[in-house]
């Protein structure tokens, strides 16, 4: 018959205590999984950014090239600008990369009309809805050089293609002074859309 010493009794107590804690934890853990449960979910949530897109039928080509203009000379052309974005937006027109010498841009009259019909290279069928700008080229370049200062044109609703045609007319004033001889003027016309 085995004999228990005081020492073996202490060891048994030291082992029994942690073993009891582990056993109790296992019992609580097992019983906690016996609770009722249920879940619900909505799957495959997804996101896609909307678009703001503009294109014109000039495809980057210059609207005007007048290498030997004299007082009284003028020109007119049209360009169709189309919005195909999915978002509602605001379209503004401004000048970019503008240069001028000898004060020529002060004596170039510029009229920009917005309407429907016509397109690059022809204004056949163009019907004006409103005048966007009327003044000198220098005035247009000075006042409208970014989206923030651009001329408001139209506000596409988004989701389907919308086109507006712009008829641009220039004229070198009849009384342009001799000082503009040999002068140059150039600018890019920029239509920019930003979602609204």
Structure keywords:
alpha+beta; 2 domains; 2 helices; 196 residues
Please, could you describe this protein's structure?
This protein has helices at 6-32, 137-143, and strands at 54-56, 74-83, 89-100, 108-116, 127-136, 151-154, 162-172, 185-195. It is α+β, with helices and mostly antiparallel strands and 196 residues long. The chain has 2 domains: 1-34; 54-195. The longest helix has 27 residues, at 6-32. It is elongated, with a radius of gyration of 38 Å. The N and C termini lie far apart (94 Å). The model has no long low-confidence stretch (mean pLDDT 89).
Number of H- or I-type helical stretches: 2
Dominant shape: elongated
Strand order of the largest sheet: 1-2-7-4-5
Q: What would you report as the Rg, rounded to the nearest angstrom?
A: 38 Å
The share of residues in helices is: 10-25%
H-E order = HEEEEEHEEE
Q: How many structural domains?
A: 2
Topology:
Blueprint: H1 6-32, E1 54-56, E2 74-83, E3 89-100, E4 108-116, E5 127-136, H2 137-143, E6 151-154, E7 162-172, E8 185-195
Antiparallel strand pairs: 1-2, 2-7, 3-6, 3-8, 4-5, 4-7
């Amino acid at each position: 018959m085995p004999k228990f010493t005081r020492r073996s009794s202490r060891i048994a107590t030291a082992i029994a205590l942690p073993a009891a804690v582990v056993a109790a934890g296992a019992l609580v853990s097992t019983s906690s999984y016996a609770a009722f449960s249920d879940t619900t979910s909505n799957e495959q949530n997804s996101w896609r950014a909307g678009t703001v897109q503009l294109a014109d039928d000039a495809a980057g080509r210059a609207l005007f090239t007048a290498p030997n203009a004299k007082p009284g000379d003028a020109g007119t052309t049209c360009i169709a600008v189309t919005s195909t974005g999915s978002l509602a937006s605001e379209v503004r027109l401004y000048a970019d990369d503008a240069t001028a010498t000898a004060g020529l841009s002060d004596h170039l009259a510029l009229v920009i009309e917005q309407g429907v019909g016509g397109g690059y290279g022809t204004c056949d069928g163009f019907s004006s809805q409103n005048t966007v700008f009327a003044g000198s080229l220098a005035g247009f370049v000075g006042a409208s050089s970014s989206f923030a200062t651009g001329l408001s044109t139209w506000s596409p609703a988004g989701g389907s293609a919308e086109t507006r045609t712009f008829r641009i007319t220039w004229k070198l004033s009849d009384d342009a002074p001799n000082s503009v001889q040999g002068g140059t003027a150039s600018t890019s016309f920029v239509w920019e859309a930003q979602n609204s």
